[in-house]
Design a protein that fits this description.
There is one protein chain. The protein has one domain: Glutaredoxin. Helices cover 43% and strands 18% of the residues. It is built from six helices and five strands. The chain has a five-stranded mixed beta sheet with strand order 1-3-2-4-5, sandwiched between helices. The longest helix is centred in the last third of the chain and has 15 residues.
Length: 144
C-alpha cells in the first residue's frame, strides 16, 4: 500500500496557506492520530476546515473562516487539515464527515461529537467570503 502522506505540493509553497489559519488560532492536525485525539473525544463545538491549494480555498474558504471566528458565538475548538499535503490526516478527518463526499475545501462543524453542519466545495466555490461567513455564523448561533 502506498504512503498517502507523501505531499503532492512543495511544503515550502504550502506553508503560507497553512499559516493563514494557524496564525488566527486553528490547530493543525497532521496525522490520523492527531485527528482521532480530538474528534473522537471532544464534546465541545468544533470547527474543522479542510484547507487546500485551490483558488476557492484562498479566495473564499480561508477568508470566510477568518471572518466567521470573529463572531461573538464561535466554536471552542478550531481545527484544520490540509488536503494534498497531509493526505492521511485529511482522509481521517473526512471519515468523520458522515454522509458527505470528500471535497476541498470543506468546512465542518461538530457539537457533542457529531457533525451538525457542513459546507462543501459546491457551497464555497464562487461565493463571497462574507456570504460563506454568514452561513458559518448562523450555524455558530445555532450550535455554539
Amino acid at each position: 500500500m502506498a504512503n498517502m502522506n507523501v505531499p503532492l505540493y512543495d511544503p515550502r509553497l504550502v506553508q503560507p496557506m497553512r499559516d493563514e489559519l494557524t496564525r488566527i488560532g486553528f490547530q493543525e492536525l497532521r496525522t490520523p492520530a492527531d485527528v482521532d485525539a480530538v474528534l473522537a473525544t471532544t464534546k465541545d463545538p468544533t470547527l474543522v476546515v479542510v484547507n487546500s491549494v485551490c483558488g476557492c480555498a484562498a479566495r473564499n474558504a480561508r477568508p470566510a473562516a477568518a471572518l466567521a471566528i470573529a463572531h461573538p458565538k464561535r466554536p471552542a475548538r478550531l481545527l484544520t487539515v490540509f488536503a494534498g499535503q497531509d493526505a492521511d490526516a485529511t482522509a481521517r478527518a473526512r471519515s468523520y464527515f458522515t454522509g458527505y463526499a470528500p471535497s476541498s475545501p470543506q468546512i465542518a462543524l461538530f457539537k457533542d461529537g457529531r457533525l451538525v453542519f457542513m459546507l462543501e466545495r459546491k457551497n464555497i466555490e464562487g461565493r463571497a467570503a462574507q456570504d460563506i461567513a454568514g452561513d458559518l455564523t448562523a450555524a455558530f448561533d445555532r450550535y455554539c
